[in-house]
TrEMBL record:
Gene3D superfamilies documented for this protein: PucR C-terminal helix-turn-helix domain
Protein name: LysR family transcriptional regulator
Source taxon at top rank: Bacteria
Provenance organism: Actinomadura verrucosospora
PucR C-terminal helix-turn-helix domain ranges (all copies): 284-339
Length: 348
């Protein structure tokens, strides 16, 4: 209530004081006041009992600031809502504008509260839909509540980053959740995924896209979306958006190799030692650029270094790893080692 307290009895019915009353309720709206706080603040402002009721929402509230109750002066809002003041004696000059703004604030705040509650409910239902622990009947009920048919095709997406922006691209039918312990990754359910999603994804956001499966199999699509997310990165040679059904044999590698298995690969261990050296991060950036471009000069342009510097970095890395990147199969071996290291550091 700090900064909001004023008393109606001390105000004249002039334009300046009308603006002060409007500002009083605007600050309550901006502060996302709850219905109880709104009624209490109005009663304190008006110095008489105030109330709010909306049978459709099951709300009936009244606040008495220590003043005697009188005849009700009522305003309606929305379809079924009412607000009122109970003043003994003659109305004060600003009672009408108080009631008008009280009704407006009630309409805005209750609608906002309902929207927030709907979003929370949808998030819980979407989390249930992708949970492998939910029974099929329970999952089907959750999908229907989200307006998805259990037998209709549905994509699960694993989103790390700006989920709200991704939902904006996917359209109003998409639903988001934050299931289980994967705090940095959110699940999104969508009946369709635009072919150009990668070009419409905001910077700093990574997305793994699961296949379109019957909604009742959403946990399977969600698992594959999380697997696809492991193949994404921001700025080091892998795309920011990956579809699981385009991974081919790489999906089997991700599914079967645990981080502890990858740690035993000699080439990955060699890359770790190389990364720990002075300027090791720069060398690894060069290796990624070389694998992505297949050329020393193109790699130099990609990382903004002179090609002779790139050649020296590559020669140093070849000595550390023990094989030539230019020999048959050498670049493929390096590319695989870099990918395995990335997968180890991006567990599901």
């Amino acid at each position: 209530m700090k900064g909001l307290l004023l008393r109606l009895s001390g105000l004249d019915a002039d334009a300046e004081n009308a603006v002060r009353v409007i500002g009083f309720f605007d600050r309550l709206i901006a502060g996302r006041a709850g219905p109880h706080a709104l009624v209490r603040a109005t009663a304190t402002l008006a110095e008489c009992p105030a109330g709010l009721a909306d049978p459709a929402r099951g709300i009936s509230l009244r606040s008495e600031p220590g003043a005697a109750a009188g005849e009700r002066n009522v305003r309606e809002f929305a379809e079924t809502g009412l607000v009122w003041l109970e003043r003994t004696g003659a109305p004060l000059p600003l009672d009408d504008i108080v009631l008008e703004r009280f009704a407006f604030a009630a309409a805005v705040l209750l609608e906002r509260d309902r929207d927030d509650r709907d979003e929370r409910d949808d998030a819980a239902l979407a989390g249930l839909a992708v949970s492998a622990d939910a029974a099929e009947a329970e999952r089907s009920r959750a999908l229907r509540a989200l307006r998805f048919e259990p037998a209709a095709p549905l994509h699960a997406l694993a989103v790390a980053g700006d989920v709200a922006a991704v939902l904006g691209v996917l359209g109003r039918d998409a639903r988001a959740a934050s299931p289980g312990p994967v705090q940095a990754v959110q699940a999104v359910l969508a009946p369709e995924v635009p072919a150009d999603l990668e070009h419409r994804t905001p910077g700093g956001t990574r997305i793994g896209i699961g296949p379109a499966l019957p909604g009742v199999r959403a946990p399977e699509s969600w698992r594959q979306a999380r697997s696809a997310l492991r193949f994404t990165t921001l700025g080091d040679g892998l795309p920011a958006v990956v579809r699981h059904d385009r991974l081919g044999g790489l999906a089997a590698i991700a599914a079967r190799l645990r981080p502890e298995d990858i740690a035993q690969v000699a080439d990955v261990a060699a890359l770790d030692r190389l990364a720990a050296e002075p300027h090791g991060g720069d060398v690894l950036e060069v290796l990624v650029a070389f694998c992505a471009t297949g050329s020393t000069r193109k790699a130099a342009a990609r990382v903004h270094r002179h090609h002779s510097t790139i050649a020296a970095r590559l020669a140093h890395a070849e000595r550390r790893l023990g094989f030539s990147f230019h020999a048959p199969g050498g670049r493929l071996r390096l590319d695989l080692a870099l990918l395995l290291r990335h997968l180890r550091d991006e567990p599901e």
